[in-house]
Amino acid sequence: MSLLTAFEAPVCVVLVGASGGIGRAVLDCLLNDTQVSRVYTLSRTRPADAEALQARHGDRLRLGQIDLTDEASIAAAARQLSDESPQLVLTTTGMLHTEDQQPEKSWRALTPDYFHQQMQINALGPALLAKHLIPLLPKDRRALFAALSARVGSIGDNRLGGWYSYRASKAALNMLLRCTAIEAKRRWPQLVVAGLHPGTVDTPLSQPFQARVPEGKLFTPTFAAESLLRVLDGLTPEQSGQVFAWDGQRIEP
Length: 253
Prior knowledge:
34% helix; Fungal_SecMetab_SDRs; NAD(P)-bd_dom_sf
């Protein structure tokens, strides 16, 4: 079974954030995909069962470390991949809250440190990944760079306000992806750059906010991972620079 049928097999994938809830589910999907020849994972922390994973999948899985707040770390990871030609780069990293700070309900709760941290991880980090990893993608066939965004990053869809830093960081990410798509098209005509909204997924990131999720709208990580990979597989270069939800629907800017 494969969720990546639109790619030219065998498919080499770079997955950033494999130790998170959605990222780990994506990793499992990729390792079970008959089209995928190798997965390079880049995470700040290694998966808890890294040794067992490596023993089970051997050379088909490469585990690496990266710090999205440090461009030198991103550049070093890219150099390690310089002999490869990945067709898909997917980053599933993201930050919504910390132990000390919840999303702001009012402008009165805004703090520079929290705002800058959200921007660093949710917007600048993926943009720097694009800067260093898109040059590794093939120019003569289908390739894709995608990052997890969120519906709350849509300015047109914002009717509730609040969550200032998170909304702003995801809106910034969407703009950065759009700019990247426009520039990359000149040299990578078959490249798709996309943002992805996974819905509300049952992970530590969403746990404090799950009580208000409508019935049937709290997704398992596996459902989210499979849905996102199906969406990615169906995107075309004409859709590059846009943001899509887990069900394939385009999200307005």
